[in-house]
Amino acid sequence: MPERTPLLRDLPRLLFLTAAGLLMLMPYIWMAAASLKPLDEIFRASLSLWPERFFAAENYGKVFERIPVGRYLWNGVVVCGGILAFQILFAVPAGYALAKLRFRGRELVFGAVMLGLLVPPHVPALPLYVAFSQMGLLNSYTALIAPFTISVFAIFLFRQFFKSLPDDLIHAARLDGMSEMAIVWRVVLPNAWPAATAFAIFSVVAHWNDLFWPLIIANGDSHATPALGVMFFRSAEAGDDFGALMAAAVIMTAPLVIAFLLAQRRFVEGIASTGLKG
Amino acid sequence: MSDLAIAAPHRRAAGTGEAMAAWALTLPAAIAYLLMLLLPTLATAALAFTDYELGLDGFRWIGLGNFAEMLEDRGFLQSLRNTLVYVGLVTPGSIIGALLLALAIEAGTRGRTLFRAVFFLPVVSLSVAMAAAWQYLLHPTIGPLNAALRVIGIEGPAWLSSSDTVLLSLAAIGIWENLGFNLVLFLAGLTAIPRELYAAAAVDGVPSAWERFRLVTWPLLGPTTLFVLTITMIRSVRVFDTVVVLTQGGPNKASQVLLYTLYEEGFTYFRIGYSAAITLVFLGIVLASMWLQTKVLDKRVHYA
User: Fold this and answer.
1) How far B29 CA lies from chain A's nearest CA (Å)?
2) CATH of B65-301, one of 1.10.1040.50, 3.40.630.10, 1.10.3720.10, 3.90.470.20
């Protein structure tokens, strides 16, 4: 370890970072503060953060009373969980085949994967919408999950990772009489946890926060995700009751932010290493 | 599944079995790829040349009709211009900011994890909820920002509802959203620079911190910077959530952006053909940003 600079000399740097950090946290600080205040205090626009009259119970109570918070959070879990499960189920075997098996058409498959990496998810959205609408599947979990079951990025990521696994590991498993399918799930995947967790975090963060597709597909409380929930609440309350609106924002943001604070390192590395797909 | 087992341990003997197994393993992904990505993408490309509207029977091929309409469509042109301005503000803003902060974090050992977490927080926060927080923060009368400005005697503008400031405000939020992501990429790039190079620079008599940055850090950070540049452009061309929540393209189309126009035309007015054509323009911009990375700038930034 390099020698630590004396605190006094380090002070300007720390002050600069602290000031920038506070600026960064402003929306969170004011969001949390407003969620504790009664409306008349918010309308006075004073710069004091701490409420004179503690109004948390009323604000948060109103959110739970007006919108099915549990329903939204549950929908978020089902959609993100469903998407991730299919992505892993489809991408891990394909990534293994591309990394470790020789077959005719491998270059073609890999080319298709690379091509897929260039296409943002908004591009296939219109025909998918028309198709789901013809099949009467609007406002369903199927329509929310299906378009994201294939992640070419996951295939690419797993292929890169599996390539670095030693061939002997796989030969040994074959000698033990394991099928290729068994090798994928019982030998290869357990050795690829870093890649799998990184991708899982990336995927869940992306789809928990996604607005574009749920906005198109879900049109009522029954299948609304947390992002839509905040929007519904906002329009239902005409957006004027800031105390309650901020309380709703806090509730919907909390799950992922808490997960992030608990596993900060994994999140940062997971999202940065998979940042490729943006 | 057990019939996938390959009896012969030798690669040569296992040729056909191996190929069979490979295709069996790839099949689910291939089917999903076909149904959810390839066919719909090709369908979008085809629809862009039709006048198809959802709810109407049939459609006609109208060639470049949709693209001709775009050139006349004030809303679309405005959204294209606004998107480019937005990208033009968010990209340099979030890259320079992230680089400065990354250098400051990397320059010492105290508080690394804490600061990194603080700046990264917006990346994992629900963008719709944070947009609501910004709506309060920037509210013309009750918002804390204008309240603070009033203390020093300035009457702040109506940030999100005046056509002069709305795009600027959205860009500021965009910078706030993208900064932490870029910061983490820069931190990774900085860590990869060998310490000895700084020592060598010191031995060679490179005196100031600025010279050290100019001669060592900046050139070696080239590939990282290029990657960050491309990724930020692609991420900011996709601006959508904040517009939906905060402005709906208003006031008077001053914050109309590409994806929002695409969304309105396709999913509100159901003009699928026209919206598909806008999708192709959007895809073109994304591909151009990627091309920029591989072709134009690549030559200059690789120091082998």
Assistant:
1) 5
2) 1.10.3720.10
For B33, the closest of A47, A116, A181 (CB atoms) is A116
pLDDT digits (tens, 9 = 90+) for B250-261: 788 899 999 999
Looking at the predicted structure, is the pLDDT value of residue B12 above 80?
A: no
Which residue from A103, A122, A127 is facing B18, i.e. has the nearest CB?
A: A103
Say if residue A60 is in the same domain as residue A72: no
Taking the domains of chain B in order of start, what are their residue ranges? 2-47, 65-301
Residues of A in contact with B107 (CB under 8 A): 13
Mean per-residue pLDDT for B183-191?
89
d(CA B127, CA A111): 34
- Rounded to two decimals, the pTM is 0.89
Residues 6 or more apart whose Cβ sits within 8 Å of residue B82: B167, B254, B255, B256, B257
Using CB atoms within 10 A of its CB, is residue B181 exposed (0-12), middle (13-18) or buried (19+)? buried
Indicate if A126 and A217 belong to the same structural domain.
Answer: yes
